[in-house]
Amino acid sequence: MRAESPATETPAPFRRTRQDHWLVRGGLTLATLAIVGLLIVVPLVNIFAQALANGVGTYWDSLVGDPDTRHSILLTVTVAPVAVAMNLVFGVAAAWCIARFRFPGRTLLITLIDLPFSVSPVVAGLVFVLLFGAQGYFGPWLREHGYQVIFATPGLVLATAFVTFPFVARELIPVLEAIGPEEEMAARSLGASGWQMFWRVTLPNIKWGVLYGVILCNARAMGEFGAVYVVSGRITGQTDTMPLRVEKLFQEYNSPASFALASLLTLLALVTLFVKVGIERHARPRIEKPEGAHA
Amino acid sequence: MTAVNRRVLPGFSLTLGYSVFYLSVLVLVPLGACFLKAASLSWSDFWATVWTERARAAYLTTFTCSLEAAGVNVALGLIVAWTLVRYDFPLKRLVDALVDLPFALPTAVAGLVYATLYVKNGWLGQFLVPLGIEGAYTRLGIVLVLVFTGFPFVVRTVQPVLEALDAETEEAAQILGASRWQTFRRVILPTLLPALVTGFALAFARAVGEYGSVVFISGNIPFETEIAPVLIVARLEEFSYREATAIAVVLLAVSFVLLAVINLLERWSKRYAG
C-alpha cells in the first residue's frame, strides 16, 4: 500500500521522459473523448431525449398510466432484491472460507464461482427450463404439488440469481484477504463467540466491500434480459420484468413508452456508477489494491 | 497470506458447506441437467442438430462479430487507458467513471438505444446511412453494440498495469537512445501485452454469450444476422428443447474453454503485475 493516498488523482511527478509530445498527447486525449463520447455519452443522452420527446406529461403517463408497465416495475423491484439477498449470503460465506482457510479444492471453488459469468444468459435461462419446465426433469413433480417455477416469479428469481451469482463473492474475497485475520483472531482470543466476531469485527471491516458487491449485483439483476427472457414466457402483466417490458413496447412500435421505461433503468445504472465511484473514493484506498499497486 | 488455523477461526465447515451446497443447487446441477439432456441425443442426432447450415451460419456470425468487437475494444481500450493514466484533461474523473457504464447499463437498454441511433433518421444514422454505413439491423450493428458491452474490459485490465509501470525502464530505454515510439513498441507494449490479451479474452467471452443487446439491433435474420443465442431462443419457442439444448452445449463448451484460457492468462499477467 502506498503512503500517499489516492493514487490516480495526483500523478507521481512524471519525469520528462514519460511525457509525450504535445501532439500525441492532444491527439490521444481527443480520441479518448471521442470514443467515450460516441460510445457512451451520445447513447446516454439519446435515451433521455427519446423518453422526453413528447413532453414530461407523456413520459409520466407511459410510466404510471400503463398497468402492465407498472406491474413490470413492481416485479423487477421484487425479483432483484431476492436474488441479490441469496447471492449476498452465499458471497459472504464463500469469501469467508476462501479468504481465511486453505483446503483442497480451493482453487477449483474459486474457478467455479466465476463460471456463471462465462455462461450465456440464454443458456442460463434454458437450464432452468430443462429442470423445472413442463417437460423438465422436475416438471411433473412440481405440477403434481401445485408449484409453478417456469413462467412464474420463482423462475425469474432463479435465473437472475444464476446470472449475478459471482458478484458479491468476487468482490469480498480480495477485500477479506487484504484485511487479514489478525483482528478476528484477537476477538476470538478475547472470548468472542463466532457470531459476535462476525457481527462486530468482520462485518464492519468489509461493509464497503459488501455494499460495492451488492450494488453491482443489483444493477445486473434489475437489468438482466436474456436469462429472464427464456424463463418468463413473457406473459404481459405477469412475468414481464422492466427490461422485458422495454423490449415488448419496442416491438409494439411504442418507442416513447419503451424509452421512458428504459430511462428508469438508465437512471438506476447512473446511480449505481455514482455510488460505486463514491465507495472507491472514500472507502477503498485503504483496502484496495493489496498487490500490484507498489510501483 | 498464511493459512489460518481452523481451530482459531470459526465457521469453516459451515461456510464451505453452504457455499458448495448453494453452488451445486444453483449452478452445477442446472448445468449438469443441460448436459444430461444433450446426452439423451445420439451422437449422430446431436451432430445433425448442432451442425445444420443455419446453426453454422449462427456460430460464424457469433464468433466473427465477437472477434471483431474484441479487437476493436483492444485498440480503443488501450487509447483510453493510456490517456486516463498518463494525461490530465478536464472532466477526466467523469470520463473514467463513464467507462464502467456498459457494465451497469442493462443490455436491453443498450440494444434499444443503439438500434435507434443508427437507423436512417437516428442521431448518428442520419449522417452514416447516406454514406452507405448501415448500423442498424446489420452485422455492423452487432459489432457496434458488442463493442459497447465489452468496452470496459480492456480499459480496466490495462489501467492498473500502466499505473504500476516503472518510470525507470522507460528512462533507461530513452538514455540508451530509443525514440519515444521505440520505447513504446519495445518496452511498454510487451509489458501491457498480458493485460491486453486478458482484456481481449474477457470482452470476447462476454460477446459470445451476449443476447439482450444484440437482439434489438441485429434484425435476427437467419443466415445473415442471427447469432447462436438467438437461435437457441428460436428453437425454444418452437418447443424443440433438444435442439436448443444441443446448441447450448456447444456454446457452453466454448465458454468453458474460454474460462480456462482466461484463468491461464490472468496467472500469466500476474507475473508481470506482481
Quick summary:
The complex is a heterodimer of chains A (295) and B (274). Chain A is mostly helical and 295 residues long.
What's the end-to-end separation of chain B, in Å?
Answer: 15 Å
Strand content of chain A: under 5%
Largest sheet of chain A: none
Q: How many strand elements of chain A?
A: 0
Shape of chain A: globular
Q: Main sheet of chain B, how many strands, which sense, barrel?
A: none
Overall shape of chain B:
globular
**Uncertain ranges of chain A:** 1-17, 287-295
Give the overall pLDDT of chain B as a whole number: 91
Q: Low-confidence runs of chain B (pLDDT<50, min 5 residues)?
A: none
Query: What is the mean predicted local confidence, pLDDT of chain A?
Result: 88
Structural class of chain A: mainly alpha
Distance between the termini of chain A: 10 Å
Question: Descriptors for this entry?
Answer:
heterodimer, A: 295 residues, mainly alpha, globular, disordered N terminus, B: 274 residues
Account of the protein in words:
- The complex is a heterodimer of chains A (295) and B (274).
- Chain A is built from 14 helices and no strands.
- Chain A has 295 residues and is mainly alpha-helical.
- In chain A, helix 2 crosses helix 13 (255-282), helix 3 packs parallel to helix 8 (166-179) and helix 5 packs across helix 7.
- The model of chain B has no long low-confidence stretch (mean pLDDT 91).
- Helices cover 77% and strands 0% of the residues of chain B.
- Chain B has 274 residues and is mostly helical.
- The longest helix of chain B is centred in the first third of the chain and has 34 residues, at 53-86.
- At the A-B interface, helix 1, helix 3, helix 4, helix 5 and helix 7 of A face helix 1, helix 3, helix 4, helix 5 and helix 6 of B.
Write the layout of secondary structure elements.
The complex is a heterodimer of chains A (295) and B (274).
Chain A: H1 22-51, H2 55-64, H3 67-100, H4 106-118, H5 121-132, H6 139-144, H7 153-163, H8 166-179, H9 182-189, H10 194-223, H11 226-232, H12 242-251, H13 255-282, H14 284-287
Helix pairs in contact in A: 1-13, 2-13, 3-7, 3-8, 3-10, 3-12, 5-7, 5-11, 7-11, 8-10, 9-10, 10-13, 12-13
Chain B: H1 12-39, H2 43-50, H3 53-86, H4 92-98, H5 101-104, H6 107-118, H7 125-128, H8 139-164, H9 167-175, H10 180-209, H11 212-217, H12 228-237, H13 241-273
